[in-house]
Write a structure and sequence with these properties.
Blueprint lengths: L15 E2 L14 E8 L2 E9 L4 E2 L8 E2 L2 E9 L6 E7 L15 E10 L4 E9 L7 E7 L7 E6 L9 E5 L5 E7 L4 E7 L6 E8 L5 E9 L2 E8 L9 E5 L7 E2 L4 E2 L10 E7 L6 E8 L9 E10 L2 E5 L8
Parallel strand pairs: 20-24
Antiparallel strand pairs: 1-23, 2-3, 3-6, 4-5, 6-7, 8-9, 9-10, 10-11, 12-13, 13-14, 14-15, 16-17, 17-18, 18-19, 21-22, 22-23, 23-24
The structure holds alpha-D-galactopyranose.
Length: about 325
Amino acid sequence: MQAAPATAHPPQKLYHQAVPWLDTDGQPINAHGAGIVAHQNAYYLYGELKAGKTELVPGQGWECYRVPAGGVACYSSHDLLNWHKEGVALAPNTTDPHHDLHVSKVIERPKVIYNDRTKLFVMWLHVDSETYGYSQAGVATSTSPTGPFQYQGSVQPNGQMVRDLTLFKDDDGRAYLIFASESNATMHMVLLTDDYLAPTTQEKQILVNQSREAPALFKYRGLYYLLTSGCTGWAPNAATYAVAKTPLGEWRQHGNPCVGPGAASTFGGQGTFVLPVPGHPSEFVFLTDRWNKTDLEASQYAWLRLKMVGRRPRIYGASQAQPR
Ligand code: GLA
């Protein structure tokens, strides 16, 4: 992430657990599968806007609950505590049933990074059909962090299917798209072009045949850490972390970084992003979604404490989030 304002408050003020999380107007924040970008003294939070009736898509072998695709919501903050609703940064399409962003489709896990050369905010997101058979990565751009983002289309990088995804912008300006592929069996990591608008052919299969999803990548003291969940639909499961020396290098899978009661279910959540805590180099916040599968609009969030203990991440539930 880019330089951002240092927050004066201690990191534990940032953790919150599955209580209604309200914006500065007192309304529930509607930004699921979220990511955050820091830019010019502000933070911008992007997430899936889930609104309306949840329905079960018939004929699937799994619990395919969905709401109409609501586009991507954006909130801004100067302190990571108070979030102002900016509105819909990437609007859904309401008229063309063949459009990737039509309300009948799936829009998930939007992530945004800033390109210093083109001065564009670049959003990648998982776009899919309601049965998840389309499996593409969409890309959109905006000159302003709050949008409106212009949709540029979608792609299967090097012919590979895309489901849960995340983005990572490295210190050297290179950016990577990380995504669950091969019917969720194996993750892929692909280097993006310099403008971040397309995949290159520099791609690597990682966590091969481990069936991981919900990727969230961060860097700490020169190493790369990838948190993922298992594949159990909307139900929570145990997270794991993997470590590599370079993004396209060898990723070594480790165990569950969560500790204490609730660790086996990631405290009831599924990860989506890792936020460095300004001014506290070994402290991060692990953003998780607590899905309510039969009423997805009512899904909650938990921001969990992630502390680096030596080279190992440790993630704590509410009762253990105090500094140590
Ligand atoms: C998993 C994924 C979510 C969503 C649901 C659909 O939880 O992480 O992004 O695709 O499955 O069931």
